[in-house]
Structures are given as C-alpha cells and as structure tokens.
Amino acid sequence: MTDPLFLGLDAGGTSCRARLVDASGLVFGEGHAGPGQARLGVEASFDAMLVAAREAWRAAGLGPLDFARLQVGAGIAGIERVGVADLFAARPHPFASLTISGDGAIACLGAHGGEDGGIVVAGTGSIAFGLLDERSLRFGGYGFPGSDEGSGARIGLLAVEAAFRAADGRLSGSVLAEAVLARVGGEAHALTRWCDGASATDYATLAPLVVEAAGQGDRTADAILRGAAQAIGDLVDTLRDAGCERVALTGGLAAALMPLLPEGLAETLDEPLGDPLDGALILAGLAPVGAGDR
Q1: Do 199 and 231 reside in the same domain of the chain?
Q2: Which pTM value belongs to this model?
Q3: Mean pLDDT of 35-42
C-alpha cells in the first residue's frame, strides 16, 4: 500500500495530538505527546509532533514507518507571534508536505467543516478565531499572562492567588486554596518556588482543581469560573459583532464554562461539526465532509 495518507496535528499548551487517516477520512490511528506550543521553541515543538505522529503510525499498524507518505496539517499554539511561523517553515521535515497554521485556525476549520464561522477556544490558552468571506478574524490569544482571558492558565493563576491569601490567613475555609497548597507542598514558600518555574501549561493544570472545588460549593472557585465564563462570553460577542453568524465553543474547558456563560448565550452557540484534528486534516488537504449537511 503506497497511497498517500493524511496526518492532522494539534500542538497545544498541554499536549500534542495526532490523527492519521486515508483519503476517504477513515481513521487509521491516533497518537499523543507532551506540549507542543510554539513558546517551547521550534525543536521542542517538532519533537512533540513527531512523537505524536509516530504513535499514530504505530496505532495504525501500517508496518515500517514511512513519513514520506504523509500529507500533514499542523495547528500550533502561539505560532502567530511575529517571526515564529518563519522559523517553523524553515525547519526541515520528513513529510511529503507540511502546512502549518495556528491552533485557532484548525479549531475553526474543524468546527465548521471548512466553511465560514467562528470559534472561541477555552483551553490552556484562549482565543477567538473566525473565517469570514476568505478573511481571518482573530481576537485575544496573545499569550499568558497578559492575554488569554478565560483560559485554564488564567484560571490557574487566580487559584494560586487564592492559595496565597489562604496561606497568610486572608482567606479561610476554601477547598480550592487547600487543594492548591496541597498540590505544591502545603505552604506559601513551596508555592512561591512553584511559581518561580511555572509555565502557562503548569498554571492550567490547576484549572481542574477549580472546577472540582466549585462543584463542592467553594465560593472562591465559583467566582473564578464565573469570571472566566464572562470573559469567554465577551469573546463570543466580539466574533458576532465582527459578522460571524455561527460561533462554536471548543477546548478542554468548554463543558465546564458552558453552563456559566451569560444568560441565553449558550443556546445561541453552534455544535462543532468536528474537532481541531479534523481541521488540521482539512489544512493538510483532506476534503471536508459534513458542512454541506447543515
């Protein structure tokens, strides 16, 4: 078998995922690796993508590895920064072809089957991205800590702030603060050391603690999530104001934040037709399916 294969890659702040399909869209295998965002550097990002690609190939059981058969589309978080895309484009690769874009672009392509629409990604980072009349729209997503409002990283940062307040007696009875302190060593000095070396991805690992604590009635955690949902709702409104009629909410925090969006907003959102890996496959050259059924 020597027919071309298509590989989609989603290199994000928490993990890198891969999906291997044939020209009909039949999934042969999927793979995972560690973080692959552009902030880690070209080599670290490529390493993660190659690990995920190898795992997808092994899962497919296609015999000896032959990267030269792969037409690849990759969405890389943070690649929109000035000069970064050029660095990635200049790096040699083993594939038949490689088309690179941002993670927002592949999420949008996947959510709307390659047609016009917008998405708000709520994951390690956050971004609003739209495709409209062959134009790209982008709001937010400039990186933690100054941007990425409503993201896992920003939620984690607020959780750390709560933990520091609890550590010196300014916040009592917080399940969230206790959980964060327990995660890093139990006291303020340990939390300070953790912060000294923490990345956006590290902060985002604390977001599940916030979701769990909010579910247990912790008022601090609930307030953090509601603030994040408001920020995500603002991004949805911005896309709508820019002309995107269809908007979907995606990302690892979408399910947790959806019920907390401003009143009535969740009902106006579109269900994604596919995920970011579907969008990466469209970027690679695979014909989209499903959008015309809407």
Answers
A1: yes
A2: 0.81
A3: 91
